[in-house]
């Protein structure tokens, strides 16, 4: 293998690893979507008055 080929392979690995790090940081850096909290279940012991 020639020196140029080895240098090209090393540069490709560096680019792939760098792009992976950038994409991962962007994915983990964004704010997560807001999830609506679960509404509390109605209390079965509570009596409703008939009107």
Automatic annotation (TrEMBL):
The protein's name in its UniProt record: YtzI protein
Species: Brevibacillus reuszeri
Residue spans crossing the bilayer: 6-24
Keywords tagged on the record: Membrane, Transmembrane, Transmembrane helix
Region (Disordered): 31-51
Domain of life: Bacteria
